[in-house]
Fold this sequence. Notes:
The chain has 484 residues and is α+β, with helices and mostly antiparallel strands.
Amino acid sequence: MTFKKRELIIFILVTFAVGFLGAFAGLKLLQPKVSQQVEIPFVKEGNSSELDEDMQTIKQAYELIEQHYVEGVEENQLLEGAIQGMLETLDDPYSSFMNTEAMERFNEQIQSSFQGIGAEVSMVEGKVTIVAPIKDSPAEKAGLRPNDQILKVDDEELEGLNLNEAVEKIRGEKGSEVVLLVQRKGSSKPFEVEIVREDIPIETVHKELETVDGKKTGIIEISSFSETTANEFEEILLSLEEDGIEGLVIDVRGNPGGLLDSIEEILHSFVPDDIPYLQIEDGEGKKDKFYTNLKEKKPYPISVVIDEGSASASEILAAAMKEIGYDIVGTTSFGKGTVQQAVPIGNKKEESTIKLTFYKWLSPKGNWINEVGVEPTIEQKQPEFFYANPIQVEKTLKLDNTDEQIKNAQIMLSGIGYDTKRDDGYFDKKTKQAVMEFQKDHDLTVNGEINEETAYAIESKVIEIIRSKEQDLQLQKALEELYK
């Protein structure tokens, strides 16, 4: 078994100019390296008669519904429903059905610039769940985090919908607003997030050069793996090496994945030829291993930074680098270790596509990280206020109140330099003093009470600090440990 263009699936909430927003936008499929003609239907020798009988049962059900159901039905809806029903029994969030219209929208989307809220999503335990917001996207700016669950879109429930249907609800044009009801782990109440759709950044590789312990240190951040990422990475790495770097940190936090070709090319710069950088396993347990032509590792230390928003191609990078001896810093990654292939079905007039999980991808040593993730060699969480829930102000919060929202505010205020000395949700005098100091510093009415305006200002400051990396403990840890 060999492979052609292998790509990892990502679901990015994006929309092109005509306003489509769907799970297909930004979809990347892992496909065969040498063309495999997949015959439909898949009929195993000796089972033809039994299969014919089963198909007769399906045909009877189809005709019964079509001819006798009390209301009118469309043939295409029945056929698509039957296919979707079969896929749903697999309990696989990455296998799905795309009809002709959906495929056309997908094909247009992957050829156009991204617009939308900018977040990868997956279906986790029946809930539409954020895998990672894209760097500098509206989703990131609004404070969406990995593992946030989207319950409603513009007051419409998502429960019972498949991923494609759910994401369709978030459709809209650039400049339009969408309101999401979000449930965050650890919070007893969901909260609303208003997001204005924008252009999604296409640039995927960013670099910095810092001096750590007197040594030139390169930092390369990869936000996703697109068609241009490998070339961008190679150019940036070469420029850093020409600058004389003595160590390198690769940051793939919040990176939802992308083209496998892209990460393959990048791994050719780091993984020696005595160990596979990737293995692919089929349903019968047969494995193919893939190698580079690299003779030796880089002459400088390297570490990779990951978090729970690092998925797919990011995990291939982290798993490979970990198993050849490099440090992985941060928190356990998302855990997506399957391979999908898009297979056309139907006739030319009504051609649709089934995206089906065909294979597993395994680490160099043969480990499968699906639903487990890549564990860091050096675990490091971010400050507590990075994970705090938004402050929902149904009524002004003031002295002697007790409320979960006060706890959120206390965590945030203490994290940004206004220490409340407690985080139990009781609004005491010290909390009031911290609020007053914050209000004074940010040109707000100084009354020591938290209304919507003050809550918004606190949250905005938190997001500003998170994005500026002023208190980025994970990156700091990676730099500290690099030369030890």
